[in-house]
Amino acid sequence: MKGQNTYADAGVNIELGDDASKVLYNAARQTWDNRNGKLGELVVPFDDFSGVRAIDVSGLPKRTLMNIGFDGVGTKMELAERVGNHKTIAYDLFAMVCDDAVVRGAEPVLIGSILDVNSLGSGEDTYVDHVRQLAEGYIDAAREANVAIVNGEVAELGDRVGGYGSNSFASMLAHQYISTNMNKENWGSMKKVSEWIVESDPDKQDDLRRYMRKDELHFVTRLKNIRTLNYNWGAAVVWFANGDRLFTGKEIKRGDYLVGLREGGFRSNGLSLVRKIMEKHHGADWHKVPWKVGNETLAGLALTPSRIYTGAVVDMFGGHQSGPRVEVHGIAHITGGGIPGKLGRMLKPSGLGAVIDDSFKPSDFVGYVQGLGNVSDEEAYKTWNMGQGMIIATPNPVDVISIANEYGIEAKNIGYVIKGPDIRIKNKGTFNPFDNPDFVDSALGRKGPEELVFPIG
Known about the structure:
By secondary structure, the chain is an alpha+beta fold.
């Protein structure tokens, strides 16, 4: 019958969707052994990517608590879209959900995710290989977090999902190009450029190209080449905890040591500010600008994957069923809000404060972004992790550091808990008065304070 519509006409490719789902399913299967012999060992009545996957909770002791936490990667995915490398995004996703769970003394067990994409492509131009990159990181991140992945949904949502190279992004570039370059001589061919932008049929696009000038052909070719997988990735983590061993904040004592676990990048927080600074100072193609040393680009450094601390920290306090290897009184996951926000949240129930006098310095690239954007040290500490992705309150810092090192995590004693309402940090931001790094423009003519003081709200 003529005029019949199909799901593909609406931009949804069922076959590619199934292919992508199978890729994520096969990756998930490789994570199931992570929970063998532990709470969360999977029961799979039949092995099929749309089948049932469950765990047996019939023998759990009294005071066992279970909950679900949700989070996503935020705008860091736009960096992956720019550089074409999606292999590490799962680390950011799992760090956000799993490392948040351990803050209250929980053991993450199962992960499920939802991958919303603009399009999986069509014909020979598909983005299933991009999904394979995501799946590769999926496996490695789950192993590091010691969780099993039970499912991974994929949905094509069209223009409801944007990003670098998306229709809205291309339209913005086209508007800028046409408004800048249109004149009386080329208005006809420029009209073809405008029509090319909104045309989805490749054959009709090729026909429109015949009427374009050389520079216009170069522009539309560039637009075509930046097309990529645009997506938003969120996850849920199922965690279990011993109700008698939850961290409430009231366990923290004056004199407890604060151990910092090192973070080499931004984790998955404050990236909108990073991107704004980079574009302002390096232009729209800032992601291609090389870093001052080595072979890495600015976007490659901004994409540095989040360290997942879950495995090490659960080992420290014993998780749901095991005994603790070291006494832990509190945990702060340093994400949005930085040390003042997240350490402050940990300390608030106890009414205590903290001195941070020997923290890890932020990486050279984090310092470069702060200096380039003229972000004050105080604002930087409230926005980024500034070198420590997690802080642990403990009376036994040596043992905490030793266990972290077993997992390849650099750790050290960065401070201690005090009586008082403030968090006092020896400033190691870009403008600190002790050692302004060489990469800070001296023309800024500015020094920050020796100590930053943040009230616990």
